[in-house]
Protein: Adenylosuccinate lyase
Amino acid sequence: MSAEPTRPVRLAELEPAVALGPLDGRYRPVVAPLVDHLSEAALNRARLQVEVEWLVHLTRTGALPGAPTLTDKDVAYLRGVVASFGQAEIAELAEIEAETRHDVKAVEYFLKRRLAAAPEHLGAGTVLPAVSEIVHIFCTSEDINNLAYAIGVRDAVEQVWLPAATALVDDVAALARAQADVPMLARTHGQTATPTTLGKELAVFAARLRRQLRRVAAAEYLGKANGATGTYGAHAVAVPTTDWEEVARTFVEHLGLTWNPLTTQIESHDWQAELYADVARFNRVLHNLATDVWTYISLGYFRQRLSAQGSTGSSTMPHKVNPIRFENAEANLEISSALLDTLAATLVTSRLQRDLTDSTTQRNIGVAFGHSLLAIDNVRRGLAGLDVDRVPLERDLDASWEVLGEAVQSAMRAASVAGVEGMADPYERLKALTRGQRVDAAAMRELIGGLGLPSDVEARLLALTPAGYTGLAASLVRHLG
Structure:
């Protein structure tokens, strides 16, 4: 009689909960700083912040005639509710939402509980219990959400992603400067081409990445606070004497955001699409860097220090040190860019004055930035573990004398322009010798000696080597500043 099969442990029932995705599991240490800004808990804390600041703004600007005046202690207490939002408050809010079935309404009720409890902390004289009905007044959920998301995305970019990306680009720029004068055979279309320097090629990436960082750093984070269809309809009917546009503008700007005066029920999210396009473009340039460095490793131009890679290499081939940091980065950049593209494409469209496609979509913002941040970390660690090996660089250059054909035919053209006879058809003459063929030093020098060039030009070309044919490459790195 066969034994009953053993029932496997249900991982979904374990406590603490097992992460479904890698960002909250395997890669959590790298992306954890984003949790403060782009997690569900951070979103709720930002919502609470917006509700508190709206309450303070209305009572302190006189927008609501007859509203009680909050003291500095009242305001400090309210802002303390936001600052102390932690594990217990997250659990309490979840319980409220289980009843309301509405996330923003749950935040409203949570804040009202704190207003009711204010006398326990401030004494019976506080007016906070009396301002309960001012909480969320004139607000549709999207008035709170658009501002909360803008705060979260702004802080995630400025405090987490941008510093990490900037540090990466600084690493690439430093490596470019250090290797500015190291000659390297170029490979246009994968074929031997006019030599360059390793540093100059890295400098190209540093400059490209920096340009995208400047765009990200200049991003605008827009917000609105104008009601159910963006008309201030309820505001104007309830309190017609208040300049509600001015109240909304000063409120949004108080939060450190840019006021958008023309919206439907939602702030149109165009700024998000613009930002995500720039971050995705940064990702793709970084992906290009990762694949090129991977190729340089495969050519032997870079050696990997095993201790810096944090890996023992292949599981079966002990001689190998795999470029896993760059491969991991490639994959994460592709995932991040795909998500950012989807966010940008989805968020700019809303049916008529409102639909909810943005709700679920925006909850993936943290995932998109998380995979980008993980890739940045991998590339930085990968670059930190590289050493340049000049031997393969020099070997490839010395085996590619045919690349001097460009220099020779260009010198012939210049001589022809200067009136030197016998310089006709330089391109065709060099092509016959070099196209599809390996040319050694002796053959190239023999060709140069038989061209009838002016003596100074001939001497200059005869002294030229592939390693010396790098033009202004080394000095171009100075453009990195």
Notes: The first helix runs from residue 28 to 31.
